[in-house]
Amino acid sequence: MNTPTKFVLDESKMPRDWYNIMADLPVPLAPPLHPGTLQPIGPDDLAPLFPMELIMQEVSAERTVPIPEPVREVFRLWRPAPLYRAHRLEKALGTPAKIYYKYEGVSPAGSHKPNTAVPQAWYNAQAGIKRLSTETGAGQWGSSLAFAGALFGIEVTVYQVRVSYDQKPYRRALMETYGAKCLPSPSDTTNCGRAILAANPDHPGSLGIAISEAVEVAASHDDTKYALGSVLNHVLMHQTIIGQEAMLQLEMAGDDPDVIVGCTGGGSNFAGICFPFIGQQLRGGGRTKQRRIVAVEPSACPSLTRGKFAYDFGDTGHLTPLTKMHTLGSTFTPPGFHAGGLRYHGMAPLVSHLKDLGLIEATAYPQTACFEAGVLFARAEGIVPAPEANHAVKGAIVEALRCKAEGRSEVILFNLCGHGHFDMSAYANYAAGKLVDQAYDENELAMALAGLPSVPA
Amino acid sequence: MNTPTKFVLDESKMPRDWYNIMADLPVPLAPPLHPGTLQPIGPDDLAPLFPMELIMQEVSAERTVPIPEPVREVFRLWRPAPLYRAHRLEKALGTPAKIYYKYEGVSPAGSHKPNTAVPQAWYNAQAGIKRLSTETGAGQWGSSLAFAGALFGIEVTVYQVRVSYDQKPYRRALMETYGAKCLPSPSDTTNCGRAILAANPDHPGSLGIAISEAVEVAASHDDTKYALGSVLNHVLMHQTIIGQEAMLQLEMAGDDPDVIVGCTGGGSNFAGICFPFIGQQLRGGGRTKQRRIVAVEPSACPSLTRGKFAYDFGDTGHLTPLTKMHTLGSTFTPPGFHAGGLRYHGMAPLVSHLKDLGLIEATAYPQTACFEAGVLFARAEGIVPAPEANHAVKGAIVEALRCKAEGRSEVILFNLCGHGHFDMSAYANYAAGKLVDQAYDENELAMALAGLPSVPA
User: Fold this and answer.
1) What is the pTM of this model?
2) Burial class (CB within 10 angstroms; exposed 0-12, middle 13-18, buried 19+) of A12
3) Which residues on chain B are in Cβ contact (under 8 Å) with A379?
4) What is the pLDDT of residue B22?
5) CB–CB of A421 and B425 under 8 A?
6) Burial (0-12, 13-18, 19+ Cβ within 10 Å), B3
7) Residue A101 has pLDDT above 90, yes or no
8) Interchain pair B382, A77: CB under 8 A
9) Which of A77, A179, A383 sits opposite B108 (nearest CB)?
10) Which of A188, A252, A374, A388 lies 20 to 30 Å from A127, alpha-carbon distance?
């Protein structure tokens, strides 16, 4: 087979701007609300948590925002990231579809997260901030911010969900190798953490609690700001470099996607691959190719497919603003499946908004089906995906098999957002038949949804 | 800083041939000897273990051997591999030296090993071989051959040193994800393994024993051949794609190395980075820039710096041919330090020969000094090296600090042969102060050297 399988973008073509989908939305996004007053918040309300440059990006309506040159310089360590044509996977599936995947596992942290960790660290460094606090589950985000902090001389404190801190010491070791401080959450370093430990000294922690701790630390220290790895508008915008590159690479390949697939936890890698394509459609009206955009989430944490589109808190301690999003309720605790990066009760407001507008579809699969897809992919293409990315692989395979059944040669693009080298224990469990599909508790979900904050219209 | 930090080679410039240093040696290599007769062996003696194409490469005196197109096609998944200028490390060290590193961690298995695993699997598949047997320690090689086997439909059986099999299940999970079968060695599937288990049912295993088992399986099954991840001439030749690419990339950078550094276990990644440069020197005589070539090995397994240049067996069971090499003796068991890829009693005959001819230097460092260097590198450059690669980082830093002391702006090139994402437990131990420098037993070394086979001149 002589067709090239990898499409390499020349460094000179690495995007110089992020794409801001806010400029092209047919209906504006609902504003975030203050957790106390329930009134729309302004930039100043966010100032204790973020440097002003990032706050202005959060609320910006400009279509493009320039990527600072020092940030692009760090990106050159691994960007432009490769786009591959999955010839071998197509053959293994016997599909007439063309499958392309963008691979973000080439970053030093092994996932797409440094695409936003680097600019966040840089803008904070420019604002004179000495320390960043953040939360992490399995550790993809924490290790990416630790990497970025090391490059710009910013101290990073990561609150890691205790159960992951205890069970998965490897990403913690990566954070510490980069010089970050990693604490198990709930911890005794915050009011929120102490209150939870007082009630239950053995509390396993949750992402919602870890966010509360990291936010509390940032809000109460002048030299410290907070950084979030997904959900927020500016974080999603930072990831659009993925889709912009993919668009140029597909031009090199002479193809245009019919279907774009990404996995969704908080929504950032999904937004990264698809927002530039959605924006093209929105600006082009009926003149541009109408593509299907498919978000794939875990059945055990199905915010887009089973959640409610409503105002909710981003954290358990209710310290964050309320945003309108697809949510399972901030008290909902997803079962402990392996795709830790997808275990969040909410969804990015921008992704939720697009779902509500009918511009994207959503589907959910259980983890064993996703691991099965990941192993098939690894044997065909040679790259072992992260458990999160396996959801995108599964979604792409479902589309490719539909094409086979329908005899259609569609072009499928998906985002392989990270490698699975830190997640081999999950693969070992899968191979040993020990991985089960954990259902969430329907009663707990009903209660969590019933407990959503009531917001005046 | 606006100087580019990454040098990307266009895919069209990926080397089309391997470089065979045998063609340029000023003194020919001593021949391998039959383990029974102690007479030089010919290609036919190797036929039970390897397909004829690889045997002909092993003994070839042709300067170049074409890389088959299907092999190059797989290489395109990650090659050409990037070359980086380590601006941030230079700054951290305050050195006037220019430091470049070639990064092989971008392969799907995370190291340079697929550079030879892919052609070995391909040549075997072409010869109609259904199964490959091999050995592995920590698992870098086993997982690379498993990856290559999956791509060409070859069944792979890996004998993994039992202590690693039990303690480090993650690379085993990677092998199994690629579809390979992984057995703890010593095992009850071979005569050699059964004999050792009969004497000691709890034997922790060793690389020498695992080689014996894999060789025995290949020698006793018609449809099975053996694959080795280092040491042999053809394996080292397959790695020369590294140095050839680096040479082109340094031309792009407008620099020519004064010092080239690589870590050495069996010798393959070191050969890969430096043989093309040494060949250039040998062919050019005094007309070419004379470079220093530095091999860095672990103090706890110092074959080049403390071993004897003599004929020895490659395995514990004495099933392999004898080769003339720097060896600590086939009964020598190195302490269990973390750079598992460097825990081998011998050294590639070609590397040993060049050392004996004075064409390369060798130096050894203890593991804590190497981890210290690796952490410094990670915080400056963003990439966490494998424990093996930390030895090359240490060697490069020593050269850079010498340049600082001497006020010289030399050009240093080193090979960063793999990432450390599978080795974070070692980093965690290092951070916790639990990593110690294990000395080998001087008496054991003396006995192992005294027990070297006696070979008639």
Assistant:
1) 0.95
2) exposed
3) 150, 177-179
4) 98
5) no
6) exposed
7) yes
8) yes
9) A383
10) A188
Are A150 and B382 inside 8 Å of each other by CB?
yes
pLDDT of residue B80 exceeding 50: yes
Does A424 sit within 8 Å of B171, measured CB to CB? yes
Are residues A150 and B431, on separate chains, in Cβ contact within 8 Å?
no
- Edge-to-edge order in the sheet of strand A411-416: A6-7, A83-85, A98-103, A411-416, A259-263, A292-298, A361-365
Sign of CA dihedral A265, A267, A273, A277: positive
Sequence-ordered strand ranges (E) for A2-60: 6-7, 17-19
- To which H or E segment does residue B303 belong? helix B303-306
CATH code of domain A6-13+67-110+234-450: 3.40.50.1100
pLDDT in tens, A114-165: 999 999 999 999 999 999 999 998 899 999 999 999 999 999 999 999 988 9
Report whether pLDDT(A169) > 70.
Answer: yes
- For residues A60 and B376, give the distance between their C-alpha atoms in angstroms, rounded to a whole number: 38
Chain A: give the shortest CA distance to residue B389, in Å. Answer: 15
In this predicted complex, what is the ipTM? Answer: 0.93
| CA distance between the termini of chain A | 59
What pLDDT does A1 receive? 45
Q: What is the mean pLDDT of chain B?
A: 94
Q: Are B383 and B315 in contact (CB under 8 A)?
A: no
Nearest to A424 among B84, B174, B379 (CB): B174
CB contact under 8 A, A174 and B110: no
Nearest to A215 by CA among A46, A32, A329: A46
CA closest to A427 among chain B residues: B173
CA distances from B430 to A48, B167, B232, B367, B376 (A): 36, 17, 33, 10, 13
Separation in Å, CA of B330 to nearest CA in chain A:
33
Q: What is the rounded average pLDDT of the residues B237-263?
A: 97
Structure tokens of A190?
A: 């915050």
Across the interface, of B73, B176, B379, the residue whose CB is closest to A178 is B379
CB contacts, 8 Å: A383 with chain B: 77, 108
pLDDT confidence band for B1 (50 / 70 / 90): very low
Alpha-carbon gap: B384 to the closest alpha carbon of chain A (Å): 7
- Give residues with Cβ within 8 angstroms of A433, minimum separation 6: none
Instruction: Please state the domain extents for chain A.
Output: 6-13+67-110+234-450
Q: Min CA distance, A5 vs chain B (Å)?
A: 7
Cβ of A178 within 8 Å of Cβ of B378? The answer is yes
Q: Which residue has the higher pLDDT, A167 or A329?
A: A329
Q: Is the pLDDT of residue A166 over 80?
A: yes
Q: Is 70 exceeded by the pLDDT of residue A3?
A: no
Position A5 scores a pLDDT of 84
Q: What average pLDDT does this structure show over A362-384?
A: 97
